[in-house]
Sequence to fold (61 residues):
Amino acid sequence: MLPETSTLLKSIFLGVLIFSVTLLTRYWTDMGDWKGYVFVFIGCLLIYAWGRYMSGTDPDL
Fold:
């Protein structure tokens, strides 16, 4: 398997993992809707940043 593909798969796996935990946190905790959406938004940002960092397209991170 090519290193680029392996890195991409790792990024996708980590992204799905973070997003799943974020959604579970959203449904398992008793907080207002806006806080849940903030968690989801932060989760998406982390997934995006990690994906760019792992793929090497943004070396500044």
Q: What stands out?
A: The chain has one domain: 8-55.
